[in-house]
Amino acid sequence: MNKSPIVMLSDFGDSSPFVGITKGVILKINPEAIIIDLTHKIKPQDVWEGFFVIRISFSYFPKGSIFLAVVDPGVGKEDRKAILVETENFFFIGPDNGLLSGVLEKEKIKGIYNLNKEKYFHHPVSRTFHARDIFAPVAGYLSKGISPIRLGEKINDMVRLKFPLIKKEENGNIIGEVVYIDTFGNLITNITEEIIKDRGERFSLIIKEREINNFVPTYALASKEDIVTLINSFGLLEIAQNCGLAQKSLEARVGDKVILKERRRI
Question: What are the chain's domains?
């Protein structure tokens, strides 16, 4: 019996029965399954947010973990595959809409499978609840040691989302963007710690015409309600407000441009 956990991510929220039902289907197949909730509060239909959360989270789990991810605005469409991605260290199950592709630049892919072996589904299969009828059963059987090739047909590729790259301007400025906003209203950018180290800590960050000059090691070293920048626990430059919501104060959203420039020395 595979003792690796099944790690769940979805946009189901916590006020509906969908999460519980999905877990119930897994446990009917494998009563010994270990199920971990990564989060069920991805914004509804926000595939990008799910992509990002998987991307920054999966490596913290034990080798062999099975990720069951459901953010699926295309559920029931004939051209949307249900897939299983097997990497050197993990398994990822979910819709083929880019949600699972955040692992591709970090993990070696061993196989991608179109989940079309209906004997491993829960029947009847609803057109609107594939988490219950396809993804959960496959996760359950996989956790019992069923080989991926028995669960689906091997395919060559999957839908891919790309993590946005920074741009370097001729004047030395770095152009990045907000890629995620957490529950504290912190704005996480695609500017890495390595870029900050290369430039030193004497820089300004501009977002929505607001210039931020205060770089701190941690939130508590900022004055109350000050908007600051710092390197977060995932090695990315973040805009935060101590005892406040930077998102609200700056009226910011994912995709907003940020400009990193060196401050002149006096």
Answer: 6-155 (3.40.50.10790), 167-262 (2.40.30.90)
